[in-house]
Write a structure and sequence with these properties.
- The chain is mostly helical.
- The protein has a single domain, classed as Non-ribosomal Peptide Synthetase Peptidyl Carrier Protein, Chain A, CATH 1.10.1200.
- It is globular.
- The N and C termini lie close together (9 Å).
Length: 75
């Protein structure tokens, strides 16, 4: 499992997104510099970091980065 702080660091370091923990609840289209390619890259990074396969269909429906984080860290 990764913490919220680690998740934010991944977003900043690996995807070069200028986000903070406060940005996680924003709609994806309201996240600065976000585009759909980031979602695929984020899934790949999260699968590598967590050792788990993400439910991609559910990730595609995620309205925010917080929702993606919950999917990545769900037990």
């Amino acid at each position: 499992m990764i913490s919220v702080d680690e998740f934010v660091s991944l977003l900043r370091d690996e995807l070069a997104l200028p986000v903070t923990a406060e940005d996680l609840g924003r709609a994806l289209d309201a996240v600065d510099s976000w585009d759909s390619v980031h979602l695929l890259a984020l899934c790949t990074i999260l699968e590598r970091e967590t050792g788990r396969t993400l439910p991609f269909a559910e990730v595609l429906e995620a309205p925010s980065l917080a929702a993606v984080y919950r999917l990545a860290t769900a037990s």
